Amino acid sequence: xxxxxxTSFDQAYYDKIGHACVETWLKHWPSExxxxxxxxxxxxxxxxxxxxxxxxxxGDSYFKFQLSPVKDRVKTFAKKAYSVIHAMEHSxxxxxxxxxxxxxxxxxxSMGMLELLCPDNVLATYMEVYHEKDNRIWISAExxxxxVNRTHPEFKAFAQRYRQxxxxxxxxxxxxxxxxxxxxxVANEFKPHVRDLCADFKKKYKTPLRHTIxxxxxxxxxxxxxxxxxxx
Length: 232
Description:
Layout: E1 3-10, H1 11-28, E2 35-40, E3 50-54, H2 60-66, H3 72-90, E4 95-99, E5 103-105, H4 111-117, E6 124-133, E7 136-149, H5 155-167, H6 179-189, E8 194-196, E9 218-220, H7 224-228
Parallel strand pairs: 1-2, 1-4, 2-3, 6-8
Antiparallel strand pairs: 4-7, 5-9, 6-7
Helix pairs in contact: 3-5, 5-6
């Protein structure tokens, strides 16, 4: 199975925590894999297992979104979303694995484990999260890590729908216009074909990664406080 792992960051975020994401990835992920880093206005030191794609490659729709009258926070999360869109549309891998730049790898991960994470009959593997707001349940996703299967029959429709949310600024199914909310909403539309790593939980967690099968291998420094106090 051909697997591509991707992330994105700018210089400031790389200096803050992204460098540790890259360093621990290189240490613990299978040596035959390459880490594709979408980089904004800077370059990483050249490394055989690192591929770099500049944000200038994300296309006109990305820049149009960044010039639109949405909140700055929405624009920030859209940088991640359009990196994912680019990978879904341009990668030649069987599976694309997104890894947040604030996710550190803490133990060796095998190819066998990665291949089992999203088998051939699964369109996407992710962590579904529920939120209660305004007397309504909203479905989103913890997108510190997720996998999409580019060989699945429904993949093209999935990728097109994800892009549509951003290009057309679709918000009616979203609690907030953030990438996790969009991914969760789209995954919910393709429910019969996706794998939710939280499906068997008796308790619903807002940050479920450490409670999943990936918990022993990954640590997500998700909150601002965690990142502000981060030291590696």
